[in-house]
Amino acid sequence: MANILDILRKTIEEVQSKNQKDPKVETADPSIFDLLRKEVNKLDNKVKTGQAQKGKRNPKSILDMIKDGIEGVRKDNRKDPKVATAPKSVFEDLLKKVGQKQQRQASTGLKKVVEDYNLDIRGLSRETLVEVQNRYQEDLKKFNHQYATALFNIIKQQRRR
Q1: Domain boundaries, the chain
Q2: Which among 82, 68, 66 is positioned nearest to 32, based on CA atoms?
């Protein structure tokens, strides 16, 4: 789990640097990036101490928690009159990086299906393949969530004993 958080920390640095160097985009207040780092560190501590799922009725993936944290910082930034609202690209670049892991996972999984079933997909258009991959990604997320929920409930039951 820490791996994705380490990648996100590095991505925050990259996005901040890109934002500062891009003359076409307003430079975001450095406090925005500090808030993002703080959010990642808070989540990292929760993961390390086993508190990430504590108090929840349903389990949440680490990627969903990260997305929620980024969106929370974005909302706080919009509401704070003392700090200029950061350009959309700051948050979009971070969210895009978080989504890449899921896309890679879906791409790898779909490739395995094609290989395991010896499917010839050469005749399919790029658009069709993207559509199938997106559907596969959605289905995989639902499937994983069902198992996570089942395990989450078993863990809660065992703790009550």
Answers
A1: 2-160
A2: 82
pLDDT in tens, 45-78: 988 888 877 767 778 888 889 999 999 999 999 9
pTM of the model: 0.77
DSSP annotation of 27: P
Question: Is 63:97 a contact under the CB 8 Å cutoff?
Answer: no
The H-assigned helical ranges of 1-125 are 2-21, 30-48, 62-79, 88-116
Angle at the Cα of 91 from the Cα atoms of 55 and 70, rounded to 5 degrees: 10
Residue with tokens 């892991």: 101
For 113-139, the DSSP string reads: HHHHTT---TTS-HHHHHHHHHHHHHH
Report angle CA 59, 45, 148 to the nearest 5 degrees: 15
Q: How far apart are CA 71 and CA 67, in angstroms?
A: 6
What is the average per-residue pLDDT within 127-131?
94
What's the number of CA atoms in the CB half-sphere (13 Å) around residue 101? 17
- At residue 2, the pLDDT reads 46
For position 1, what pLDDT does the model report? 44
